[in-house]
Specification:
The chain is of the alpha/beta class and 271 residues long. The protein contains 10 helices and 9 strands. The longest helix is centred in the last third of the chain and has 19 residues. Bound molecules: nicotinamide-adenine-dinucleotide.
């Protein structure tokens, strides 16, 4: 079994490290995942339809329910947790090239991850996008219209259907963002997959690109994933506990091998 110390050595010695995060890194901030034991879809399989663009466009009842869920989304009151902050520390130690997140909750930015290194591959709940003209606006403006009594607000520019600026099942990912994520994964010496069931494609293919490029894949998740057998290490547990311990071990190792390495202080910007 590979130890945290060994994984820390791989990361400290790597030229390029990529982190891939999923809903599991935010459960300790109070945002449920989809497929974990307390996941939104595990508890209510019907909820999966709300994330399907075909149902959303065809059925106004689905849209009304989706707007209610957005208005009540736990992301509005959630705070970044030690898992998000550990990835900021890894970046500040110069050991994180790119952070690809499947999360739409904005908590990596809230923790202090730089915009330049972050790829929010499934979009963000903090903006709305018009499905017809593409107009984007802050989500809070549209949620105010919902709270003021409009159950399915239309685009103010063209009257088209609005939704959060997130990727639903049936929608294509932004090709530019996907290309950046794929090229980072393919050249990574280490890819750290945190809190993801690795079951949503094409993102779940990123660790396979790292393996194909000769890099190591480390899986940090509360439950087994389909990639556990082919990954180089599996660190089972809660991201908010395992990740800070791992990053501490990386920084300690770097201080030992490269005197003068220090972790800059981390500003916290909550939404
Ligand atoms: P998923 O629900 O498929 O899997 C989450 C995984 O995280 C599970 O295997 C679970 O066991 C694990 N997990 C839960 N809590 C954990 C913890 N504290 N530490 C470590 N592991 C933990 O999520 P996914 O792989 O990200 O894919 C689901 C899709 O749903 C993605 O597209 C994602 O964008 C979206 N989603 C996002 C959020 C969010 O933004 N916070 C929340 C729910 C779903």
């Amino acid at each position: 079994m590979t130890t945290t110390a060994e994984v820390a050595r791989w990361i400290a010695d790597a030229r390029s490290v990529v982190a891939l995060t999923g809903a599991g890194i935010s459960t300790e901030s109070g945002i449920p995942d989809f497929r974990g034991p307390d996941g939104v879809w595990t508890r209510d399989p019907r909820a999966e339809r709300l994330s399907n663009i075909g149902y959303y466009v065809a059925d106004p009842r689905i849209r009304r329910e989706a707007w209610q869920r957005r208005a009540d989304h736990p992301a509005w009151s959630a705070r970044a947790n030690p898992g998000h902050r550990a990835l900021v520390d890894l970046e500040r130690a110069g050991r994180l090239d790119v952070l690809v997140t499947q999360n739409i909750d904005g908590l990596h930015l809230a923790a202090g991850t730089s915009m330049a290194r972050l790829i929010e591959i499934h979009g963000t709940i903090r903006e709305t996008a018009c499905l017809t003209c593409g107009d984007r606006r802050p989500m809070r403006e549209t949620l105010q219209r919902v709270r003021d009594g409009d159950p399915d607000p239309a685009c103010l520019g063209c009257g088209g259907i609005l939704k959060s600026a997130t990727i639903s099942f049936g929608q294509n990912l932004d090709p530019g963002l996907l290309a950046r994520a794929e090229s980072a994964a393919a050249r990574a010496d280490v890819l750290l997959a945190v809190g993801t069931s690795l079951s949503v494609y094409p993102v779940a293919r990123l660790p396979e690109l790292t393996l194909a490029g000769g890099g190591r894949v480390v899986i940090l998740n509360a439950e087994p994933t389909p990639l556990d057998a082919s990954g180089h290490a599996v660190l089972a547990g809660r991201a908010g506990e395992v990740l800070p311990a791992l990053v501490d071990a990386v920084v300690t190792r770097m201080r030992g091998t490269r005197p003068g390495v220090h972790v800059a202080s981390r500003p916290t910007v909550e939404p």
